[in-house]
Amino acid sequence: MLTTRDDGCQQRQLHLIDRAGRNAAFTGSKCVEWAGHIVNENVSVAGNMLAGPQVIAETLRVYNALADAPFAERLLVAMDAGEAAGGDKRGKQSAALVIYRDQDYPWLDIRADDHADPLRELHRLYAVAQERFLHVAETMPTRENPHGLTDRTEIDRKIAALEATRVAEGRPSPSFATPLKPV
User: Fold this and answer.
1) Would you place residue 19 in the very low, low, confident or very high pLDDT band (cuts 50, 70, 90)?
2) What angle do CA 144, 138, 145 make, to 5 degrees?
3) Element (H, E) at 111
4) Is it the case that residue 178 has pLDDT exceeding 80?
5) Per-residue pLDDT averaged across 72-87, rounded?
6) β-bridge mates for residue 26, sequence order
7) Tally of CB atoms within 10 A around 177
8) What b/e readout covers 75-103, taking b as 16+ CB neighbours within 10 angstroms?
9) At what angle do helices 53-65 and 71-84 cross, to 10 degrees?
């Protein structure tokens, strides 16, 4: 058992899901109240220092209701639901979303470490990532293809088309960066 050699295990939470979807969860008896977890098929929702059990229950309910949504959006909206159900009993300060696929590095890693509305900031950062980064991430080296995509022509064309559509629709970029200059 993972907790056997950990003298501080009663102050920790551990939640695991293997590639076959089998779950294991542990919430120590000395975690800060309210603390707990819910394990369901292919998902584990947990928290401590929460307003109450309704936080993880609502997070799981919304996550399950969005089964057809892209995974990152499903997680973000579920976190919004947990926040609306009471969230962290201390208030709001930070949030993060890290998604791994089948590589040793994260496919997406966004965070708001000190923000008045961290979940809204995560939504903005995800929108920024959709403009360019997530498309470029598809070109990165993998175990199966250690050199990655060496010809960026197609990915650059896709990014340019998405940018042109955004501009034509009159939608501002969610990015705070300096606008791109034509090369």
Assistant:
1) confident
2) 15
3) strand 106-112
4) no
5) 97
6) 14
7) 9
8) bbbbbbbbbebebbeeeeeebebeeeeee
9) 150
8 Å CB contact between 40 and 64: yes
Quote the pLDDT of residue 180.
Answer: 64
Taking CA atoms, 11 is separated from 14, 26, 31, 149, in Å, by 10, 10, 5, 45
Residue with tokens 């973000």: 76
- Give 62-71 contacts, CB < 8 A, sequence gap 24+: 64/40, 71/99
SS3 of residue 36 by DSSP:
strand
Which stretch, 1-5, 17-21, 31-35, has highest mean pLDDT?
31-35
Residue 113 pLDDT > 90: yes
Determine the residue type at 63.
Answer: Y
Q: Which residue has the tokens 């603390």?
A: 35
Which stretch of DSSP H or E encloses residue 108? Answer: strand 106-112
Question: Whole-angstrom Cα distance, residue 105 to residue 111?
Answer: 16
Kindly tell me if the per-residue pLDDT of 183 is higher than 70: no
Question: CA torsion sign, 65 to 67 to 73 to 76?
Answer: positive
DSSP for residue 4: T
Write down the pLDDT at residue 182: 66
**In this structure, is the dihedral angle defined by the CA atoms of residues 12, 28, 118 and 80, taken in order, positive or negative?**
positive
